[in-house]
Amino acid sequence: MDNHFSSSPHFFTPELGGSSTISSKSINLEKHSHSAPVVQIPSIRNYGEILTAAGMEPDLTSPDVPSPLARARCCDVYIGYNRQDPPFNRRLVKWLTAELEMHASVFATDRNRNKDAISHCAARVAMEVAPVGIVVVTVQSLSDAFRTEEMLLFSQNRKLVPVFVGLTRNDCVSSDVIQKNGDLWSRFGGELWKDYGGREEDWKEVVDGLSRVDMDFEASAANLRDCLLDIVAFIGKRLGKRSIIESIQKCSESGLHELPFSRNENFIGRKQELRQLEFILFGYIEEHDEGKLADSDIEKKEREKGKGKMPLASEEQKEEEMSLTIAEVGSYARGIVCINGETGIGKTELLLEFAYRHMQRYKAVFWIGGEARFLRENYMKLSGPLSIEAGIDNGSAVSANIEEQAIGKVRKEFTRDIPYLIVIDNLEMEKDFWDGRPVSDLLPPFTGQTHVLISTRLPGIFNIMTFKLPYPSPSEAMNFIKGDSSLLLASEDDDVLNIIQEKLRRLPFGLLLVRAILSQLAIDPQTLLALLDSPMAAEITYGPKDDPVFQYNPFLIQLLDVCFSFFNQLYKNTKNLAMKMVEASSWFGPSPVPVCMLAYAAWGSTSNSNSRNIWKKLRDSMFSFPCMGTLNAEGKEAEALSMLMRLGIARSGTRPGHVHFHDIFKLYMRQRSSAEPSSLFVQAITDEGFSPAYTDHVWAACFLVLKFGMYHHIPIDLGPHDLLFFINQLVIPLVAYSLNELSLCSAVLDLLRVATQRLELLENSLLEEAETARKMKSIFGGKSQSFIESEPTIIRDIVTLRAAILETRAKIMIKTGRSDVAEDLCRTAINIKEVIYGVEHAETQLAHKIMDLIARVKSRF
């Protein structure tokens, strides 16, 4: 049986099997096929006779009545479909049912698969009582007895809401179907009522009625999400359920569909990889996929010129290709694919293109940065758009598994039949950075419709189907360089370009940078090759955890040296702001960077006296590349930013006023530049203050200042007052947000631990300095003062802040069930406060209350 009914949200009830008590007396209800006669289902008044014949009580109000019948009587929405329809139709029905079940009682069934009288009775009860009858209408539906009967009944009662897939209401003209008029009906038309032994008059009434229905919807891969949400909103209005309408409005306003970058209109190639991804995730490939957005500009021009077009494979080739894919996928987890390859080969671009092409097939696309230090936070931030309360104070009891429970809430949302696409870009490690847990714990269990795509440099992760992204062929590499052929190149330039692409190992990142240099900097290929063959400016050293892209491709360093040397020439009158912006970007977090902070970090080294005013001007402006909003387009600043965009060094984010820089540029700049940009980055973040919109940049500043979580030691030492201001302005708000909204216990405890250590070191160093100064005065005399003498309140400020952090750590330890550790931390805080404030002071008494709470918790366990 295939009846799915539930009045509770989120989940279908299990499928119902036939009952052994009616097997010998069951009514002759054959499983329907196209050649079977019409099954005459009795009306509601005859159910008592059916139940009596089946050996059951006829009283439908009795508690002994089988649950499908009892629940069918309170059905709000009936959905009729056929499980033999294409996977797209089944995906639509599952998604629609899951959305509606959160607010209404839904009965979704394929009556062709009902095996017993009770199943047929329950379906008919639901048809009679449901205020809304949804039927998925395909060309096959018109030769299906059950679909035809459902449409006839619902249309007569003015309850029919048809959802057309593969045809429209204008196609539903009975005479056209019978006479096989048009391309559609020439293949599928005819006297379709004969396929199931129905009456011609009833069949014509159904078909012609579809063209006159009050409301209908047309679903395709190109509009699935929009169409489905429109259906849900319409049902909400029809049923008078305000909760449905409000949920749709909230979904529309929440920005669920935001991707970090705009679509790459220069995306070319990778057609085979896109086909494989589509087949693995959806189970089929649509040769004329309406779900894909328009081809990129380059693909259009290539197609018009007859270039770059993939020849159509023969049926044998397609069958062999897909059978190979099926064999490869068979032993792996379904619904998840990993793209493997070195940095710069195009993993992110491939996943971004897939997401844009197929985003209508998902309710939302969630793009998660996979960098090790930020992955957990990025994942838990999904709780916001999913309307999940995941914070540590949202009803969570004392437990050592608070963080796991919060993660479980997010994972549970992805077990439903509402499809989401999760993209984890640039996964760095298989284990969590903070507590060593397997990253696979974050992945959904794949019992629902959610899909996961992962890009990584790791050779193989978990039990996941992995594609190693190949380098482009020589002809494809030439397409990367020439692009839309707007470059004016001589015939002999092809030989030079072939040399350049081989030196770059045909790495797409390098090829695209070559194209940008040739087109934007007016350099011919011969000159570029000569510059690339010149001696390297300086060797780049590598750490054990560094991305090895430059080790594999040393010629890429030469290309970057040439590129940025032009900035030194073009912008020498403005102290090379473009170069400074790229340097500053290398210290920000992995997400797109707010232009205001980027500009402040860059201008800070070139115009310290005026940098704050420029930064405020930028922050108050509305940025929109390439014109940069209200910023003076004639200024050197806007010119530098525009050049970064044209060269592809900076990329605009989908959020206004944000830009992104590729990891290769960041790695190069961290190796080539001094520590000054990192200090300016910290200054920009500190002056702006904490904001939940860019917490990864705040974390990046914490890693630098507190000297933890870094792959390289960067000498950033803030003065005493600056360090206290940094902790109060950024660390404390970051801790509160991470706990109250995301339950990031492990990361927060580590952050507070190193903050405590830094304050202890600062206190000890100042005391040692004061003691040394005192001894020097006693020996040599003089009037020089130590820092403590010039700032007598500094030690008090340090220990007060340290006590507050200790109390916060103690509270977290209480919440996570580690009372012994909490007791030690709280006792230290009490000792500090008794020295500073005295035993009876209110601040000291607050610390004692925490200690009393610890005692009560310990007595309970």
Number of strands: 14
Taking all Cα atoms into account, the compactness measure Rg is 33 Å
Largest sheet: 6 strands, mixed
Helix/strand class: alpha/beta
Question: Distance N terminus to C terminus?
Answer: 49 Å
The level of helicity is: 40-55%
Beta-strand content estimate: 5-15%
Write up this protein:
With 861 residues, the protein is an alpha/beta fold. It is 50% helix and 8% strand. It contains 35 helices and 14 strands. The strands form three sheets. Strands 1-3-2-4-5-6 form a six-stranded mixed β-sheet, sandwiched between helices. Helix 5 (145-156) links the parallel strand 4 and strand 5. The longest helix is centred in the C-terminal third of the chain and has 36 residues, at 745-780. The radius of gyration is 33 Å and the shape is flat. This is Disease resistance protein (TIR-NBS class). InterPro entries: P-loop_NTPase, WHD_plant. Residues 295-317 are annotated as: Disordered. It holds the Pfam family WHD_plant_disease. Residues 295-307 have a biased composition (Basic and acidic residues).
Topology:
Blueprint: E1 3-6, H1 47-53, H2 67-72, E2 77-80, H3 87-101, E3 106-109, H4 117-129, E4 132-137, H5 145-156, E5 160-165, H6 174-179, H7 182-188, H8 200-210, E6 217-219, H9 224-239, H10 242-253, H11 271-282, H12 297-305, H13 315-329, E7 336-340, H14 347-358, E8 364-369, H15 375-380, H16 402-413, E9 420-427, E10 451-456, E11 465-468, H17 474-482, H18 493-503, H19 508-520, H20 525-532, H21 549-552, H22 554-570, H23 577-585, E12 593-594, H24 595-603, H25 611-619, H26 636-646, E13 650-652, E14 658-661, H27 663-672, H28 676-688, H29 695-706, H30 720-742, H31 745-780, H32 787-790, H33 794-815, H34 819-836, H35 842-860
Parallel strand pairs: 2-3, 2-4, 4-5, 5-6, 7-10, 7-11, 8-9, 9-10
Antiparallel strand pairs: 1-3, 12-14, 13-14
Helix pairs in contact: 3-9, 5-8, 9-10, 17-18, 17-19, 23-24, 23-28, 24-25, 24-28, 28-29, 29-30, 30-31, 30-33, 31-33, 33-34, 33-35, 34-35
